[in-house]
Design brief:
Number of helices: 0
Order of helices and strands: EEEEEEE
Strand order of the largest sheet: 2-3-4-7-6-5
Structural class: mainly beta
Largest sheet: 6 strands, antiparallel, barrel
Strand content: over 45%
Helix content: under 10%
Mean pLDDT: 91
Radius of gyration: 14 Å
Shape: globular
Distance between the termini: 47 Å
Low-confidence stretches: none
Length: about 110
């Protein structure tokens, strides 16, 4: 494997892409795109999603629920690796992180 500036940590979390950016404006997706994280570093995330979900350079908002917190990551696709016929792995740079506490549900 190549040398990387940041250590990658394996993490398997299911998430959802809630919107993509077109002309610097976020466009909400009606159903979202289901993803699974494979690993994360301080400034990047590797995700697995349906083949053809994203193109290099595409920017999107990824929502991950971890414990009692919801992470919203603004990500940009920097590389695509064909995982198999139905799934691709997308290497993404994290440009922005927002953290929100989830409310307890009764």
């Amino acid at each position: 494997k190549e040398d990387r500036a940041k250590t990658r940590y394996p993490i398997s979390v299911e998430g959802n892409v809630k919107g993509i950016y077109i002309d610097n404006k976020e466009v909400s997706l009606h159903r979202g795109i289901h993803i699974e994280t494979l690993n994360m570093s301080a400034n990047g995330v590797l995700i697995k999603a349906d083949a053809g979900s994203f193109d290099v350079g595409e920017i999107f908002t990824l929502v991950l629920e971890i414990g009692k917190e919801t992470l919203e990551l603004q990500c940009a696709v920097v590389r695509i690796h064909k995982s198999d016929v139905l799934l691709d792995e997308y290497g993404c740079r994290i440009d922005e992180i927002r953290i929100a506490q989830r409310e307890e549900q009764a």
